[in-house]
Specification:
Layout: E1 2-5, H1 11-23, E2 28-31, H2 37-42, E3 46-52, H3 60-68, E4 77-84, H4 91-101, E5 105-113, H5 128-150, H6 161-175, E6 187-188, H7 198-202, E7 208-210, E8 221-223, H8 232-236, E9 242-243
Parallel strand pairs: 1-2, 1-3, 3-4, 4-5
Antiparallel strand pairs: 6-9, 7-8
Helix pairs in contact: 1-5
């Protein structure tokens, strides 16, 4: 087996790493940004796929990855892990239905509540100890799910018509349009930005560039219109100069704070 993932603040990466280690200590885990990931998928039949739910839907980068590589999913057995700040409905199911179109067999799904990654909104912010508790509970849930899978019992959270309805009417019907295209709403405060280049380096879409100037002190980051809303830059910027949905960074929520 192998694990693959897309992750902004580390929640989905952490989840799939824990899952795969529990199932097989020798298993490998790869980001979908890894240049070798498609070859790894071709050579493996059992795949655990983890990703963060956005508005009960799939991040645009994940959807594009699946569609752009549609020939590699046929006859693959896939277990889906969907991470979320609060609620998804059919987080595992919506990715599962897409993968099934290209011949994959979805053998199960798991929904994991994790610390909210939207660093510029107060709505889902929790105290540090509460987030640590959430991660511990998710870790226990992963262990229980792996033990069930080894025993031949397949957890199917997010998969099926009732979950589908919950995801559709819970969020996607109203907010699903937000993930249909890449966003042009990423904002960089030019007065706070120091031009360090970290955001440009870690952006999975190469959506951020550093302006060319004569002196280093004049360098600044500028954003284009292909943001996949992963919140990686917002949560890593040393000056909290970047926002997306909100107007001010409330908390930078990287998984390392909670484990």
């Amino acid at each position: 087996m192998i694990g693959i993932y897309f992750s902004g603040t580390g929640n989905s990466r952490y989840a799939v790493e824990c899952f795969c280690k529990e199932y097989d200590k020798d298993s490998k885990v790869y980001s979908i940004e890894d240049k070798n990931v498609t070859e790894m998928i071709r050579n493996e039949n059992f795949i655990v796929f983890a990703y963060p739910v956005q508005f009960s839907s799939i991040p645009k980068i994940v959807k594009d990855f699946v569609i752009d590589n549609k020939d590699i999913w046929k006859d693959k057995c896939i277990f889906i892990i969907a991470t979320m700040g609060l609620f998804s409905g059919d987080g595992a199911g919506i990715l599962g239905r897409l993968l099934q179109k290209f011949g994959a067999e979805i053998i199960g799904g798991l929904h994991l509540r994790m610390p909210d990654s939207i660093g510029d909104e107060k709505a889902l912010k929790r105290p540090l100890e509460k987030n640590k508790e959430i991660v511990r509970n998710s870790r226990k849930k992963i262990t229980e799910t792996v033990n069930m899978l080894k025993a031949g019992e397949h957890v199917r959270e997010g998969i099926g018509p009732l979950y589908h309805m919950a995801g559709l009417f819970g969020q996607r019907l109203y907010f699903g349009h937000k993930t249909e295209n890449y966003s042009s709403n990423l904002k960089i405060d030019q007065e706070k930005c120091i031009g360090c280049g970290l955001c440009a380096k870690i952006c999975p879409m190469n959506n951020i560039k550093i302006t060319d100037t004569i002196t280093i002190t004049d360098r600044r980051a500028v954003a284009d219109n292909r943001c996949t809303m992963c919140y990686r830059c917002v949560n890593n910027c040393p000056k909290q100069a970047i926002t997306l949905l909100g107007k001010k960074v409330v908390e930078q929520s990287l998984i390392e704070k909670y484990i």
